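--- STAGE predict ---
source: upstream dedup step, 1 unique chain passed
mode: sequence only
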Amino acid sequence: MTTTNVNTREPTKLDYASPVQFRFKCSKLPTVEFFCQTANIPGISIGTASMPTGLKDIPIPGDKLTYGSLNVDFMIDENLENYREIHGWLTGLGFPKSHAQFETFINAGSDRFPTSNATANSREAGKVDDVGFDVGAQYSDATLSILSSKNNPILEVRFRDLYPTSLSGLSYDQQAGDTSYLTGTVAFSYLIYEFANINDPRTVESTT
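--- STAGE serialize ---
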């Protein structure tokens, strides 16, 4: 039996995490990040397989992770600029009127971080042949910075190849109070997220 010394297992940090100490940044959504109210670190889960036996089947870990969605709530500015940022992104991905909408969206996507010239045959996901356009322009990278009690960044959650999947509607109401302001909710999907030590940006703690 392994003996554990309890005194060596005491945590080194005794401060609790505060839900208000964060900063969200997304290269494609500068005005959304400025008005960001809430963001989350998505949950992850792994499937379960079973090994058949003559008695009870034995559960064993699966081999694929499932990532929850990244959800962001933000205040709407008077001109709806931040709302239209996401609306335009979704419209470009879905091109409801014509294929030209998608082409325009791709051509305008040179601001993707960290690369804007990735083509389909050079990407990790899928390993498909070159489709003739910059698939990287569909995505963006985002960072959720965790702040200390003194509002200094201490940890980063880095999202790769992020794109919006849904945007909430806006409801106007003549009977609403003067202090009631519109808020929007956007849900994102992404390739993966990883934790990075802010004191050493090269240190990435992979979730896989």
